[in-house]
Amino acid sequence: MVSQSESPARLRATYWLALAAVFCAFVALRLYHGGAPLVDDSAWRQVDTASEAWFFIHKGLGPLPQLFYNGPGPNYVQLEFPFLPLTVALLSHVFPFGSWLLHGVATAYSTLSLLFLWLFVRRVLGPQVALWAAAVFAVQPLGIFFGRAFQPEPAMVAGTMAALWLTARYADRGGRLNYLLAVAAFTFAVAAKLPASLASPAVFLLALRRDRILSPRPWLLLAVPALAAGGYTLWAGTMVSPGYNFVVIILQLLQHKSYHVGIASVPQFWYHFLLETCITGAGALPLALGLVAVPPLRRASWFWGWAAGLLLWCLVVVRHIRFEYYLVPLLPWLAIAEGAGLEQLVRWCGGTRLAAFGAAAFVLAGSLLFSLRPLSELYTLDMYSYHAGTALRAALGPGPVILGTQSPVVLFYSRHHGWRTNSLTMAQLRTWRAAGAHYYIPVWSKQIPAVARYVRSHYLKRTAGPVVYYDLRRAP
């Protein structure tokens, strides 16, 4: 990239300018549509997380999140430890609650993941590979979208990369403080979302560079986060609903071969998201080079241990749960492999600045261009749900609602508690009305004929913006 005649000072300045450009591009790409409402491809997951923040702001901080659905409230639920919602609740004393704050907090956590990735790779593979890995991480299409999505993934990835960096730092330098920081970072990551534990083999193998395998320290580095996150999960399940645990339920569902949610077609899922939005056509070549042609990476046990955990994740979990964001844990690993391959590709260009620039541009710009179509699909907004929710917020009085869809978007933007069903039965109508339901909003409901006739003949019909709803307290 630079000629050998350039001074070390100029080389250092060029490096830091390039790194600053990577960070600026990273943030700018993730703030695209930063003011858009949470009604894009991952709307339901984002409004769930945003509901937690809203309740923390209005009902006070606490260790258990609360959502709008499942009745008149309070609706405490068993989810990941709510780092992003708690951050928003604290910042809401300075900034207004809204899309910019929600996307901004997610982007801030993602930017920390970029910083920790660069610090980690610089320590284990050198500054040049670290720069290229950071650049690849900045332009991964799936990372661009989910790096600004208000859901737990940004905190999970930031914690994972911090844990890897701090563990590598402890392995190189030793010291009680470095060790405790590594434990704290990995505990944060696993508490933010359990799939962070996929990095456990990498964390353990990095720690073995300092300690022997029979030493308690490498094992405690895994045990403390597992016990803390597992204990919180079990406690939250007991507090929300005694005897209920969503982790156990998911594990039971995964035993059924026919069970899946998300995209129905397995080949379509892997092609559309793993290839098109994670690796991309432009990233396939540096990925291959990184895996086979970069000796330091090829010999890195932590890298292949991490790969084993991710492979197990893909084979066992994503086989059944085919949502795009379940591939987010793969992104840092792919960025490191592609960054190492890209650095090797640039080396092969020798001192030819134009050739090196062309190779880097092909991979980095090509990654975005290759994935414009699938990436744009993720940003498609369901404005009907947004306008329905805001119109109902202005029109409805207090009281819970019955919503004719499983999507929580309308409930979130209407700021109303409620029950969700896309096929309301007479028994449900009677039960929920007796429990206090004031309104029925049949958006996207399957409209069972008997229920539809009963509602039309017994309750007052009203409109709010694009939505028709029924007042369950008044006759027509």
Cα shape: globular
> Number of helical segments?
22
Beta-strand fraction estimate:
under 5%
* Count of strand segments: 7
Structural class: mainly alpha
Compute the average pLDDT. 92
Strand order, largest beta sheet: 4-3-5-7-6
> How much helix, percentage-wise, in residues?
55-70%
Report Rg.
Answer: 25 Å
* Uncertain residue segments: none
Distance between the termini: 76 Å
Q: How does the major sheet shape up?
A: 5 strands, mixed
Secondary-structure element pattern, one letter each: HHHHHHHHHHHEHHHHEHHHHEHEHEHEE
Structural description of this entry:
Helix 5 (127-139) packs across helix 16 and helix 16 runs antiparallel to helix 17 (353-370). This protein is mainly alpha-helical. It contains 22 helices and seven strands. The mean pLDDT is 92.
Give the helix/strand layout.
Elements: H1 8-30, H2 43-59, H3 83-91, H4 99-125, H5 127-139, H6 141-146, H7 153-173, H8 176-192, H9 200-207, H10 216-240, H11 246-254, E1 261-262, H12 266-279, H13 284-292, H14 295-298, H15 301-316, E2 321-322, H16 331-348, H17 353-370, H18 372-378, H19 383-395, E3 401-403, H20 409-414, E4 418-420, H21 426-434, E5 439-441, H22 449-458, E6 460-464, E7 467-471
Parallel strand pairs: 1-2, 3-4, 3-5
Antiparallel strand pairs: 5-7, 6-7
Features:
mainly alpha; two-stranded parallel ribbon; 476 residues; five-stranded mixed sheet; 22 helices; 63% helix
Give a summary of the structure in a few sentences:
With 476 residues, the chain is mostly helical. It contains 22 helices and seven strands.
